[in-house]
Amino acid sequence: MQPRVAYEDFTKTAAAAYAGLGTLTKAVDESGLDKSLTELVKLRASQINGCAFCVSFHLNLLRKLGVAREKIDLLPVWREAGVYSQRELAALAWAEIMTGLSPGGASDEAYAALLSAFSVEEATFLNVAIATINAWNRLGVALRFAPLTLRAPSPPRPVDA
């Protein structure tokens, strides 16, 4: 599929929006949440949303962070994999709920399960991380950003995708 808008063009044309998404990402990064955990969540949401650009970006980042290969490879079947911590399981469950929000929203039981593994502050920033990646996914899918593997050798590094 041909990109509708190249990622590089998006960052220039919508520079303020790009910066705004970057500000959200920076807030999550500075919140104290483990970067590996937030990147697993971003990869899972990107898989669900079918965003090739974001899947490529977050796979590369997880590899650079040194996340165990099993965790990366088994992410589509995280419930059955047996390789994730309780916090990772809770975060992945919540990411799937937020990514596929139904008209009724997230249940109180699901939120309580999240809070069994995270403080309210941590859960709040996890929500920001998931909301931000869903925004990137929607942009990447709608505009057909090319995955990093199909791009020029030295593409600019996204603030977050």
Would you spell out the secondary-structure blueprint of this structure?
Blueprint: H1 7-13, H2 15-29, H3 35-49, H4 52-65, H5 69-73, H6 78-81, H7 86-99, H8 108-115, H9 120-143
Short description:
With 161 residues, the protein is mostly helical. Helices cover 66% and strands 0% of the residues.
Write up this protein.
This protein is mostly helical and 161 residues long. It has one domain (7-147): AhpD-like. The chain has helices spanning 7-13, 15-29, 35-49, 52-65, 69-73, 78-81, 86-99, 108-115, 120-143. α3 (35-49) runs parallel beside α9 (120-143). The longest helix has 24 residues, at 120-143.
Proportion of residues in extended strands: under 5%
User: Tally the helices: what do you get?
Assistant: 9
Distance between the termini: 19 Å
Q: Given this structure, which CATH class is correct? A: Mainly Alpha
For the record, the CATH architecture stands as Up-down Bundle
Give the number of DSSP strands.
0
Identify the CATH homologous superfamily: AhpD-like
From N to C, what is the helix and strand string?
HHHHHHHHH
Q: What percent of the residues sit in helical stretches (DSSP H or I)?
A: 55-70%
- Main beta sheet strand tally, sense and closure: none
Structural class: mainly alpha
Radius of gyration: 15 Å
Poorly predicted segments: 151-155
Descriptors for this entry?
single chain, 161 residues, mainly alpha, globular, AhpD-like, 9 helices
